[in-house]
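Human: Here is a favour to ask of a fellow structure person. Comparing notes only helps if you start from a blank page. I am asking you to supply a protein in sequence and structure-token form. Write it directly below this note and I will take it from there.

Assistant:
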Amino acid sequence: MLTADSIEILDHDGKPVSRPRQVSVAAAYMVDKGNHRHFMEKEIYEQPEVISHALGHYVDFIENKVNPIAAAIDFAKVPSLAISACGTAYLAGLVGKYWFERYARLPVEIDVASEFRYRDIPLSPQSAALFISQSGETADTLASLRYCKENGLKIGAVVNVKESTIARESDAIFPIMAGPEIGVASTKAFTCQLSVLAALAIGAGRARGTVSEAEEKELVRHLAEMPRIMGKVLNSIQPAIESLSRIVEMQGRALSGAWHQLSAGDGRRAEAQGNLLHPCGRLCRR
């Protein structure tokens, strides 16, 4: 209950409850288009910066290693991993499945959140589950989280909003550090989710002994190059991006090979959602 002089939080029965105070970082420029034509264009060009923020949270660039993963989930002892999400976050999870299985040799069960809890899959209390959501409030993902929690699994949340319901109900929070995403089709949140999942997969591999120290350093060096490479690509294709989009539209948008195909799938999903092409192919026309 908010008044001019006070604020009071009540539960379902109307009784006052106490909640810890949290400082949320917000600034006008984060929700302003600046010199861009629309928010999606702005968020496309923010990707190199926000990816560097996300990686900086999980990776020690001086030592070229992944920082220790939240103690609530011990990947060294986890026999399997479940991942659940919706939309773009689900496609990020599919890419994460490749990485966890390849680098950590960790079996991964993944499903769209709306189907996850209805499939009645056998879940072991020794396993862990990751739930991916930009907002942290996706209803189906939250329902799947609670289903896994009832079965005794350790819960990790890959979210953009650390104060969200999914984050609050999880044992470990893995923020993607993307900042507000206002555009209809996901751009920077998707690439930040991938960055975080990559770091987690490498860290899990190191914890399980499937990634050597030398391999970890090499993988982290490649991750550290991603913001620079992405910035270079965006700057180089900007003058020709409209003509490039027409070529992509005529010749098709399928990309071969594992996670590249999944990225193309997210482009098709975004196009259906908002009549947009993948951010690598064309800027939104609004």
Remarks:
- The domain at 35-234 is CATH 3.40.50.10490 (Rossmann fold).
- The first helix runs from residue 39 to 45.
